[in-house]
Fold these 2 entries.
Entry 1:
Amino acid sequence: MNIAELFSAGSPGWLRVSPKLHTYWHTLTAIAIAILLATCAVVLLFTWQVELVRSIFLGIAVLVIILGIWMWILIGRRVRSIGYRIEERELKVSSGILFRRVVSVPFARMQLVEVSAGPLERAFSIASVQLHTASASTDATIPGLDPQQAAELRDALTAHSSTAGL
Amino acid sequence: MSGVTVMTDFTQRRRTAKLTPLLQILNATPGLIVAFVVAGMVWWIALIMLFFFALGGLGLWLTWRRRIFCINEENELEVTSGVFSRRTRRLRISRLQSVDIMRPLVARLSGYSSVKVEVAGTGDSRVLLSFLRVNDAEALRTEILSRAKNVEQSELISAPGDPLSAPTESWKWQVPNGRLVASLALTSSTYFLIIGTVASVALAIADPFGGTGLIALAIAVGGAGIGLISRFTTLFNFTISTTERGIAISHGLFTTASYTVSPIRIQAISVVQPIAWRPFGWYQVDINVAGMDQGSQKSGPRVLMPVVSQELVFDLLQRVLPTWNLEPDPDWFSADAGARRRFPWQSDRLAVSTTPDLFMVRGGAFTRRLSAAPHARIQSLRVTQGPWERKLGLSRIHADSVPGPIKLVVKGLLSETAVSTALSELDHMFGSRKDQHSESW
């Protein structure tokens, strides 16, 4: 196994997350951009006369728009980079485009499987599954799963953890 | 419960010491004095504060009065508290992680201490009983420890070869306070303090910014100074010993803390050497301990040894962790030559090794460190790669341990080496769990 196969993006055999995650992250990005731009607009409305403040906040607004568009474009690749696979004795989760990472959690170390769905996630009918171990730095979260897929993953993980000799 | 006798029967429901509310007030004295001096300038503010003070005192007294503890028939430490709504907490002694005696300054001067009991589990797993007379606190600790040990022996929770059940010779080591001061004087905080002081003086003489820069510097210098002093007072009289119950650590000038840590709870160790310690051959040993509160840094030991000489460091580790089979010089997989461009200072030091028992990493340019964790204690394994590393064909491996001062990371490995090392480490991690059935990881 070489390093390219270890990271999920572009390699076969990895389970993918739901395409609905695109829409969800697009919505989140849009909301964040809207809030930031609205804040800038309010500040500009009241301080249009002060040149220094005006130029600073216009700069911030432009920066928000540029970064927002960049993030918007990258969302497709970010979603495609997420993958997971249930192996014989471990769960592997891989993600990231610029900073790539793959985490391997042996079933024997799992303490808790958490399925969560916030209000906005529920509106898009997706859920995320997070694995907890005794370490706080185990960062094994799989976002954007179909509720069905999430439940199956949770059941598979709990089944494995009971056979792993805990 | 007369004034002099030591408590013996902890199965009876009882309160903590009568003076508890008073001691708690005294503990907060410095803050109160400041508050009163500030408020004393206006008489009616002082009056209002006095009222709230009395109210707080009454609250403390009621809390003490309504707080009752005992060891019940099911071998649990039962604490009932709450002034209006009662709440009972039961800590199973069979799942005991630690019993620590804490002694804040006021309590220490008056011969009282608090007992902190911690059991395995998340959430409601710890209880702090303050305050008990020193003898009572010791008696309670002995009682809980002996009960925990009895359970262990009768139910055979401890696995064979468990360091707890093995007879360990009693051994003790105290860090000379002079050496502690010297070692602290040679850490980066001190350099910062000196540079900051010089800069402050220079700024005070030249004063180009009208004093604002000086104030900022003074705050920074003060922070570094306070950090150094608090580290000294915390680690003062550092004593470590091995007992049949585990590793006993105690330290502190004003607030003394004493911990008893079962070697099973130690998840990772790190041997650290700041650059200025090299001529003296000194090392510091840090530990990650399981079951510590993730939020508070003060809840458990983080330092196994603040300063120890080169000859003694492996002796110390072999005494404290005999089952770990630490090798001073295993077969290292070093960082790739290309890592020099990404990590110019430390690329020569970066390396990883998997021995039959341990996962070991080393690194650090100025402050050198060597960290190790048994395969069974590693929770998960990560391989990561940033954009620059990707260009150079490098990757890093993180071995996740429980929260603590140690992060096991090796940087600058050639990606192929990283993958093969990670895969072999995973094999070790799978294999090492089968023979261990411990209730507390």
Entry 2:
Amino acid sequence: MTGKQQPRLEAAGITKMFGGIRALNDISLEVLPKQIVGIIGPNGAGKTTTFNVITGAYRPSTGEVRLDGKAVTAEPSHLIARAGISRTFQNIRLFGDMTVWEHLLVAQPHSDFTLRRLLPTRWADPQAFRRAEEILEFLKLADVKDRIARSLPYGIQRRVEIARAISARPKLLLLDEPVAGMNHDEADDIRRLILTLRDSGLSILLIDHDMAFVMNLCDYLYVLDFGVMIAQGRPDQIRSNPVVLDAYLGHAT
Amino acid sequence: MLLQQLVNGLTLGAVYTLIALSFSLVMGILGVLNLAIAELFMLGGYFGFAAILAKLPLPVALLAGMAGAALVAAVIERVGYQPFRDAPVVTPMLSTLGFSIILQNVATNIWGSDPLQLPDEVFGARFTLGPVSASAMQLTIVGATVVLVALLAFVVQRTALGRALRAVAENRDVARLLGVSAGPLTLLAFMLSGALAGAAGVLIGLHYAAITPYIGVEIGLKAIAVMVVGGTGRIWGALIAGPLIGVAEVMTTAYGGSQIRDFVVYGLMIVILLLRPQGLLGGARTEQGPRV
């Protein structure tokens, strides 16, 4: 890691208490521009809680979250989203009655109340309309544009969720187990997609259990166990780290 | 005779539909039963009456009723809902119950508890087609309802605001994580809901050519029944349930006697609650993941 570069995301000294339970204990991590960073760790290690703190869904008990050097800690989550952090969910959360196309429009940057927003989107916001078309092409979703998203096969729903997340124009994309439940080919599709997104300028922070997937994809890894950051480093360093092997790899496989 | 009753039932059903949509807009988006909607309906009627008595044309009266009710709805949202946003749903419901009673009281103080009558000559014309006869007012009610429902459907289904509303209704937390600001949309939902109730008030007031401060209670409760029959989670359920209950009510009165009318309407509601709690239109609402 180069010392000088301004990190896209910094989480510094995050602690999150739930009642008396210390779900996260003094977690610090950073994601550099155009970097793919992974968080790994056993179930219950606090990975998704970390995501929830970064996106403003949870207010950390202590610590600070900064995006491009600017503190966004515990801001309302819609403002954090507009500042440039977007995410997907481990258990897919698409909107029940919406088509794929509508999912791409709902997350377009918002200016709250203007009469223009009462016009059909094609005229009200041609820019949003074109961008949605681009994303549709880019994620190979054009064929299912008008289908209700939740009626689609699981692998495609995952793509729709990623499409929805990037339609919000994030600088940082958080992916919560993007290949959970996918077969090898589907996972490989997602891997290539993530690389393309990185090349287009996005920074990516992801959680996954699939070690091969994470090791192949990530530039840098953080290892969580019971809310404590027990290791960090490049994939090759993590692979041979005895603490990690003991805490995670040992009883995960 | 049967056709005539059908026409009368559809007229009543149109008004029920509007109020039920008003309830289910707020219910669908916030999961809160805004009990003051019954009084927004009543106030809309008074605002509309005031406009008609001031010799303003009907469309203006309708708009006056909608705008007035929408403004009161905005106050209710700011004072009676927003502060209790994170409280259990029964809390804002109780506060809207308080608003409901206060508004009834305000109306009684301003307009008195006697019915306010409209002079006979307003909208007296009747149109006859074969055995069926409909008053100009009945046609206006059905026509206005169709237009309002179409407008609402357009806003909700086709515009950016509507998409944002649906996203918040479906999952407020996910919508916010996508940059949708839920606060202004909540206000919008209350105001749209108020405008619909206000329109219904103007229409029913003109239909009966009379209005009292208590008109909202009976019809408001019936609209809740309509919403339940249509499905509380699906706002468009009211489009089927409104005419259905209107016709059922008129038919019961015509052929069975008015004393069993409410028995049929609320009986239907209870049967639906027992057998099909998601309502006529509600699909199975599964795969609702835990909230963020």
